[in-house]
Amino acid sequence: TANAQLSRVVGAAKNETPQSRTFIRGIQTVTLIPGDGIGPEISNAVMKIFEAAKAPIRWEERNVTAIRGPGGKWMIPPDAKESMDKNKIGLKGPLKTPIAAGHPSMNLLLRKTFDLYANVRPCVSIEGYQTPYTDVNLVTIRENTEGEYSGIEHVIVDGVVQSIKLITEQASKRIAEYAFEYARNNQRASVTAVHKANIMRMSDGLFLRKCREAAEKYKDVKFTEMYLDTVCLNMVQDPTQFDVLVMPNLYGDILSDLCAGLIGGLGVTPSGNIGANGVAIFESVHGTAPDIAGKDLANPTALLLSAVMMLRHMGLHGHAKKIETACFDTIRDRKVLTKDLGGNSKCSEFTEAICQRMKDMD
Amino acid sequence: MALYRVLSSSPNKPANALQSTLLNMQETIREPMVQDPTQFDVLVMPNLYGDILSDLCAGLIGGLGVTPSGNIGANGVAIFESVHGTAPDIAGKDLANPTALLLSAVMMLRHMGLHGHAKKIETACFDTIRDRKVLTKDLGGNSKCSEFTEAICQRMKDMD
């Protein structure tokens, strides 16, 4: 829509970053975690496209497969942690879910290691990849450290289990302020807090209160509140009414996937995780697709759009716009598409088509 | 996006076997509820998830104004209900859409084993909506509640 394009153009013109950091002029080093399965090939696609776009990014590849540290505790390899701590910005492909590996999920480990408290997913309809919904342009911001996924469960008596939903003032305040900051920096008009404070008066009530307090500090951004079930009901009927949505962990887990479904699924949805100390890891959230790994069939769009999100986070709006436009134009054109997008081109052909468009832009 | 739900159920099939037909929908692909709800049948879940999913699915077929609901209790108690609001702004003006309550009542008939009557009423209701001649405002028409009701009654008289 005109609005979506306008906010992107304005974003590019204003050249603001969501975090108030100044980046040194010149080449920025970013930690790249290719991941498993199709991870390496889609990472290669992104690197190729970035090169064709002449993006000032240098990639530092790292593996995050868990290792046992001193004392037997599972941790990410020290060189990966060191790289992220130094570079602050990371791009990550899909990771295998370890079933019998003995160590916890890598995503969980990364989240804990870098205190990745906000999961941000912009969901924008992609022209050329039709879904039953058009003109979707919203952002889900999910609190990612506590809530219903606190992991605190206990058996009261046999057959009766309790699960603790943990909501803290600190985490709620942090996510609420991030949401408003994001809205302001990305020229979004409104932030909606999604909750069930009518039922969960104390937990969601606390969360909501912190959102209201944050709203007071960002009067330039409109603030609304909506019950989760009402959001879902309205989301499937008219998603265009939504803008930025902020919510606790479980609701965010659900809504972020729901919204990804509206625009075409996890294969085309970007995602960013914001952590403490300026760390941010952008990632594709689809699986490793082992059945097509290594066959040059994968669709790099999700990782590419996550990388575009990363560029915007870093203030590199010009390059972000260029790459994003080339990607969307290629999809809209419908001549060179990977299988999941409805075509029968190879990953490398799709990548090449995007690179060619950018060369033509220059 | 226009969605019509065709309930295919006979006395031999369980009352909650649904087939959703989505009209005017472009290509659907794999993946979840919003992309291909037809892949789902009966879903059972704990309280919160049900709160969310039941409203989400109501949204897929047109919202709370056309969605039936039943609550099953202990000791054979069952209460069927429309789950939309009281709509005070149109109350008493003969503008309301009775579909949700009617379909809940149909659900009630099935629960009571009165499948023949359930089928008759449901068919009359769906045929009236499909016909698109007499519809309440929320369904896209400008008929009164009483006119919509009369149209359904008339269809049933014609069936006999």
Automatic annotation (TrEMBL), chain A:
The keyword Repeat does not apply. Residues 29-354 form the Isopropylmalate dehydrogenase-like domain. InterPro entries: IsoCit/isopropylmalate_DH_CS, Isocitrate_DH_NAD, IsoPropMal-DH-like_dom. It catalyses: D-threo-isocitrate + NAD(+) = 2-oxoglutarate + CO2 + NADH. Signal peptide: none annotated. It is found in: Mitochondrion. Its main location: mitochondrion. Pfam families: Iso_dh (PF00180). Catalytic subunit of the enzyme which catalyzes the decarboxylation of isocitrate (ICT) into alpha-ketoglutarate. The heterodimer composed of the alpha (IDH3A) and beta (IDH3B) subunits and the heterodimer composed of the alpha (IDH3A) and gamma (IDH3G) subunits, have considerable basal activity but the full activity of the heterotetramer (containing two subunits of IDH3A, one of IDH3B and one of IDH3G) requires the assembly and cooperative function of both heterodimers. GO terms for biological process: isocitrate metabolic process; tricarboxylic acid cycle. GO terms for molecular function: isocitrate dehydrogenase (NAD+) activity; magnesium ion binding; NAD binding. One of its GO terms (cellular component) is mitochondrion. NCBIfam families: mito_nad_idh. PANTHER family: DECARBOXYLATING DEHYDROGENASES-ISOCITRATE, ISOPROPYLMALATE, TARTRATE, ISOCITRATE DEHYDROGENASE [NAD] SUBUNIT ALPHA, MITOCHONDRIAL. Keywords: Magnesium, Metal-binding, Mitochondrion, NAD, Oxidoreductase, Transit peptide, Tricarboxylic acid cycle. Belongs to the isocitrate and isopropylmalate dehydrogenases family. This is Isocitrate dehydrogenase [NAD] subunit, mitochondrial. It comes from the Eukaryota. Its cofactor is Mg(2+); Mn(2+). Heterooligomer of subunits alpha (IDH3A), beta (IDH3B), and gamma (IDH3G) in the apparent ratio of 2:1:1. The heterodimer containing one IDH3A and one IDH3B subunit and the heterodimer containing one IDH3A and one IDH3G subunit assemble into a heterotetramer (which contains two subunits of IDH3A, one of IDH3B and one of IDH3G) and further into the heterooctamer. The gene is IDH3A. The keyword Cell division does not apply.
Automatic annotation (TrEMBL), chain B:
Keywords: Oxidoreductase, Tricarboxylic acid cycle. It comes from Oreochromis niloticus (Nile tilapia). Residues 2-152 form the Isopropylmalate dehydrogenase-like domain. It catalyses: D-threo-isocitrate + NAD(+) = 2-oxoglutarate + CO2 + NADH. GO terms for cellular component: mitochondrion. Belongs to the isocitrate and isopropylmalate dehydrogenases family. Its EC number is 1.1.1.41. Catalytic subunit of the enzyme which catalyzes the decarboxylation of isocitrate (ICT) into alpha-ketoglutarate. The heterodimer composed of the alpha (IDH3A) and beta (IDH3B) subunits and the heterodimer composed of the alpha (IDH3A) and gamma (IDH3G) subunits, have considerable basal activity but the full activity of the heterotetramer (containing two subunits of IDH3A, one of IDH3B and one of IDH3G) requires the assembly and cooperative function of both heterodimers. One of its GO terms (biological process) is tricarboxylic acid cycle. This is Isocitrate dehydrogenase [NAD] subunit alpha, mitochondrial. It comes from the Eukaryota. It is an enzyme of class 1 (oxidoreductase). Heterooligomer of subunits alpha (IDH3A), beta (IDH3B), and gamma (IDH3G) in the apparent ratio of 2:1:1. The heterodimer containing one IDH3A and one IDH3B subunit and the heterodimer containing one IDH3A and one IDH3G subunit assemble into a heterotetramer (which contains two subunits of IDH3A, one of IDH3B and one of IDH3G) and further into the heterooctamer. The gene is IDH3A. One of its GO terms (molecular function) is isocitrate dehydrogenase (NAD+) activity. The lineage of its organism: Eukaryota, Metazoa, Chordata, Craniata, Vertebrata.
